[in-house]
């Protein structure tokens, strides 16, 4: 599929809008628009609002609000209100890979608490190698990470993070439970790579 990223930051406020367009058989599942909005405090994203919209399956749309004073995430999914504990450091599904842009240390393993819309899961990433990929006829230096969701079988996936101006995800490869491999590639962004 194709990914379009629009990221805006004004002082310590951010807005991330990600459009994902499925291709081939995945186009049957619909295009998605994922939005994260919040603040950046001490080199860490603090989401305040999260939205996940699907043009072909609007009943599965998710809207969530993060309440830091009450340590609570309240989301609306399929018309149901879901409350989850807001664990310190929790990111949302849209912004969590952008946290690489704010990380200064070179750890072997990175862990992120990620709110997916209904659940908070721990994602773990290990750097495999430095790599180069062709993005729209431009060679981009990247770091290849292997990722998994802790406690979930068959959740291994790969993500390429650009490593020059902005360290953001530029390509993802996700195997599915039914044997399909989903490839998502960044096709446009307002950020210089």
Protein model, in words:
This protein has 193 residues and is mainly beta. Helices cover 0% and strands 61% of the residues. The chain has no helices and 14 strands. The chain has strands spanning 2-10, 13-21, 32-41, 44-54, 62-67, 72-77, 80-85, 90-92, 109-115, 120-135, 138-149, 157-162, 169-175, 181-189. The chain has a 14-stranded mixed β-sheet with strand order 7-6-5-4-3-2-1-14-13-12-11-10-9-8, with no helix packed on it. A hairpin with a 5-residue loop joins strand 13 and strand 14 (181-189). The protein is globular, with a radius of gyration of 16 Å. The relative contact order is 0.15.
Give me some keywords for this one.
61% strand, 14-stranded mixed β-sheet, mainly beta, globular, single chain, 193 residues
Secondary structure tally, helices? 0
Extended strand count? 14
Radius of gyration: 16 Å
Task: Return the string of H and E elements.
Answer: EEEEEEEEEEEEEE
User: What is the spatial order of strands in the main beta sheet?
Assistant: 7-6-5-4-3-2-1-14-13-12-11-10-9-8
So what's the overall shape? globular
Q: Strand-residue fraction?
A: over 45%
User: Could you list the spans in which at least 5 consecutive residues all have pLDDT below 50?
Assistant: none
In whole angstroms, the N-to-C terminal distance is 20 Å
Average pLDDT level: 90
**Describe the biggest sheet?**
14 strands, mixed
Class by helix and strand content? mainly beta
């Amino acid at each position: 599929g194709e990914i379009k990223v629009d990221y805006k930051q004004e002082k310590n406020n951010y807005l991330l809008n990600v459009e994902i367009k499925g291709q081939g058989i995945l186009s049957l599942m619909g295009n998605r628009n994922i939005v994260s909005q919040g603040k950046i405090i001490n080199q860490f994203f603090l989401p305040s609002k999260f939205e996940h919209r699907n043009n072909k399956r609007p009943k599965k749309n998710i809207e969530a609000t993060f309440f830091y004073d009450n340590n609570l995430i309240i989301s609306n999914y399929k018309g149901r209100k879901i409350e989850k504990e807001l664990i310190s450091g929790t990111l949302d599904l849209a912004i969590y890979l952008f946290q690489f842009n704010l990380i200064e240390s070179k750890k072997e393993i990175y862990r992120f608490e990620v709110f997916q819309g209904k659940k908070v899961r721990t994602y773990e990433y290990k750097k495999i190698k430095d790599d180069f990929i062709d993005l729209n006829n431009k060679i981009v230096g990247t770091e290849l990470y292997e990722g998994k969701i802790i406690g979930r079988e068959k959740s291994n996936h790969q993500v390429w993070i650009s490593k020059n101006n902005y360290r953001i995800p530029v390509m993802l490869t996700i195997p599915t439970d039914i044997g399909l491999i989903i490839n998502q590639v960044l096709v446009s962004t307002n950020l210089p790579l």
